[in-house]
Write a structure and sequence with these properties.
The protein is mostly helical. It has a single domain, classed as Orthogonal Bundle (434 Repressor (Amino-terminal Domain)), CATH 1.10.260.40. It contains six helices and no strands.
C-alpha cells in the first residue's frame, strides 16, 4: 500500500480510510490517481462496482441526496 500511495500521490492514511470505508466517497481526483497507478481505466472501475452487489448495497440512495 505504501508503494501505491507514493506512486499516485495519495497518503497511506487516505488509502487506508478509503479501504476501510471511513472515506465512503473519495474525491474523483483520488480515485483517478489510484486507478491510473494500478493501470485501471475509470470505465473498468465503474463497471466492476456495478457488477458488485455489495458495492451497490453500500451506495446511498440517490433520492436521499436530492434536497
Amino acid at each position: 500500500m505504501v508503494d501505491v500511495a507514493a506512486a499516485c500521490g495519495v497518503s497511506v492514511d487516505t488509502l487506508r480510510k478509503i479501504e476501510t470505508g471511513r472515506i465512503p466517497t473519495p474525491a474523483l481526483f483520488t480515485v483517478a490517481a489510484v486507478a491510473a497507478t494500478l493501470d485501471l481505466s475509470l470505465d473498468a472501475l465503474v463497471g466492476a462496482c456495478q457488477d458488485n452487489p455489495a458495492a451497490e448495497a453500500d451506495r446511498p440512495d440517490s433520492k436521499n441526496l436530492i434536497a
